[in-house]
Amino acid sequence: MCESGARLFVHRAIFDEFIALKERFEEIKVGDPLDLNTQMGRQFSQQQMERILGYIDLATLKGARIITAGATGCCESDP
Prior knowledge:
By secondary structure, this protein is of the alpha+beta class. It has one domain (2-61). It is built from 3 helices and 4 strands; from the N terminus they run E-E-H-H-E-E-H. The protein has helices at 15-20, 22-26, 46-61, and strands at residues 2-3, 8-9, 30-31, 40-41. The longest helix is centred in the last third of the chain and has 16 residues, at 46-61. The radius of gyration is 14 Å and the shape is flat. The termini are far apart. The model has no long low-confidence stretch (mean pLDDT 79).
């Protein structure tokens, strides 16, 4: 597996195992980093969230397949 900030390449030999991680990704609790039940904090700013969503849009336009997605809440002011 090779990962960069903008893309992820998974070798065919481990593709099915990698896709199986989808269920584990969906269990991650995203939220307030001060909440002890939170496993991953939200995006820091609306600007960062928009940048990430732009990468996702570009990837899907180029043929990427989204296998899981979560809520897009971001930033301290969002509920």
